[in-house]
Amino acid sequence: MAGLSVDGTTEVAIDAKLDGIRIQVHRDGDEVVIATRSLDDITHRLPEVVALARSLPAERFVLDGEALALGDDGRPRPFQETASRTAQDSGVAVTAYFFDLLHLDGRDLLDAPGEERLAALTDLVPEASLVARLVTSDPVEAEPFATRVVADGHEG
């Protein structure tokens, strides 16, 4: 996302890079479908993500995100644990983090400006389920953000 801020400087959005399984979550009423990047339907393997999707205040949406296995300390577990959990029900809980909203209640957002999509995403999804993001026009702010993301155990 890039756009102009009030003072005329260019703002950009910098997202944390998570090492999880890419998921797309589709909801239509009570029906939820979770697909991987390769379009495998893994809905039945992620009941915690289904419950989250059903709790959101919209009837129809498409969310883009990552599913990660986290340790008791909240840090990401090795990618292999996440991958095995989404491949089969291993009993390891996963947490979904979303970075984009592609559709909301009958409105496609693919061509909407980034600021609009981000606003709709943050209105729909609780903060705890959003990918960490920094929106800034100051390049100096990017380095401490990236350092913190890596220190939290993510890729960057």
Explain how this protein is built.
- This protein is α+β, with helices and mostly antiparallel strands.
- Helices cover 25% and strands 32% of the residues.
- The chain has 4 helices and 8 strands, in the order ββββαβαββαβα.
- It has helices spanning 47-55, 79-87, 114-124, 142-151, and strands spanning 2-4, 10-15, 21-28, 31-36, 60-69, 94-104, 107-108, 133-136.
- The strands form 2 sheets. A 5-stranded antiparallel sheet has the order 4-3-5-6-7. Strands 1-2-8 form a 3-stranded antiparallel sheet, with no helix packed on it.
Keyword list:
32% strand, 5-stranded antiparallel β-sheet, 4 helices, 156 residues, alpha+beta
Percent range for β-strand residues = 25-35%
Largest sheet properties: 5 strands, antiparallel
Which descriptor suits the 3D outline? flat
**Which regions have little confidence, pLDDT < 50, spanning 5+ residues?**
none
* Order of neighbouring strands in the sheet with most strands: 4-3-5-6-7
Mean pLDDT: 87
Q: Which secondary-structure class do the elements indicate?
A: alpha+beta
| Count of separate DSSP helical elements | 4
Number of strand segments:
8
Order of helices and strands: EEEEHEHEEHEH
The helical percent reads: 25-40%
Rg from Cα: 16 Å
Topology diagram in text:
Layout: E1 2-4, E2 10-15, E3 21-28, E4 31-36, H1 47-55, E5 60-69, H2 79-87, E6 94-104, E7 107-108, H3 114-124, E8 133-136, H4 142-151
Antiparallel strand pairs: 1-2, 2-8, 3-4, 3-5, 5-6, 6-7
Short description:
This protein has 156 residues and is of the alpha+beta class.
